[in-house]
Amino acid sequence: MKVHVDPERCQGHTLCAMVAPKSFELSDIDGHSSAVSEDVPPDQEEQVREAAQSCPERAITIT
Ligand code: F3S
Q: Does the keyword Metal-binding apply (predicted)?
């Protein structure tokens, strides 16, 4: 499973990093999120799915 955060859509709501803190990191500069790793470890898949659903901007894509 792979995850991507669209930097154009992300508005820094931070929910992704609260739901899946191991998989998303927030920029100190603009507060926007990015994936720690494009490849999601199996033990993080559930949290990453929840994070994607939690994002109000639908900025997180899972493939
Ligand atoms: Fe951005 Fe959505 Fe996370 S707006 S900070 S990707 S909850």
A: yes
